[in-house]
From TrEMBL:
Catalytic reactions on record: ATP + protein L-histidine = ADP + protein N-phospho-L-histidine
EC identifiers of the protein: 2.7.13.3
Record organism: Deinococcus ruber
GO MF assignments: protein histidine kinase activity
Residue intervals of the HAMP domain: 227-283
Name used for this protein in its record: histidine kinase
Amino acid sequence: MTVLSTPGIAAAPPRKPFLSLQLRLMVALSLSFLVLFIVLFTVLLRVLETQQLSQAQGDLRHVLQKVASQVNGTEVAGLYGLGNELVAEYWEDPSYLKNFGGLADISDTDPRAFPFAYVQQGRTYELVASAAGRGAQLPAAPAALAAGLNPSTRGAFVTSAPLHQNGYFLIGTVPVKDAAGQIICAMGVKFRIDYVYNAFLQVKARALQVMVALYLVLLALFSYISRRFARPVATLAHEMQAIREGDYQRNFSHLRRGPFGDEVSMLTEVFEDLLSRVARREQTLVREVQALRIEIDLNKREQQVSEIVDSQSFVSLREKARAMRERRAKAT
């Protein structure tokens, strides 16, 4: 025997956590502009740092030119002996004092610059003169020192990135050649650029403050915009909730204000049309139910009358009434 089962009403899906459209719109706008601000802030700082560094490199090249212009390569070549080695006590030679004696003056004129002269002895570099005398140390910048004594170096060599050695520095070197074009030694400048990074940090802090203030203003603006755009949808959802609870007498006219239509106004028209159809359908169903109830009541009444007429007691009473009528007729 096959049992036929009627399909039941599908269970309502579980309700999801509610997250308003206004909040979603505000979060989307704020996150988008936050990413944009971070990118702009990073690019701005990188451009600013590059400009400041380029300006410092330009200042360093200017100092290098000034330092190199005071040194005569042919005169400095006299400090070398037969083995291409510096002569003993070369620092007391008049040509040494003439060419390197003004390094301290350059450092005094521009405190950012520390000029020095050096040569290569074997695989090492040896300081021969500096603004602080021969007792100073060469900066730990082998690439820059090697470039200063490299014949293929064209003009001055300046490090592209700053060195961090008790502060921030740029190193610049330039070869010193004699009349024959042979490299005799190299001049270098250790150029302090702490001022560049101090100014950069100040601008960075100020730009960050401006960005944060601007972002807070935009957050307030985003809140207003999201509330403005989400309000019609929230109102429409409230109207639908009222209809869901059985209140069909709703007015949607306030959702169609403004000179232009939009998606909300289209949805409003659709819901109004659906609502009118549902209301008419409900009225039709009510009338049909009332008519059905009347028909059912009549059927019940007829059924009850039929049960009474067909009952044994009613038949007996009917026979007795007939007999009584017949006796009356005979008596008269």
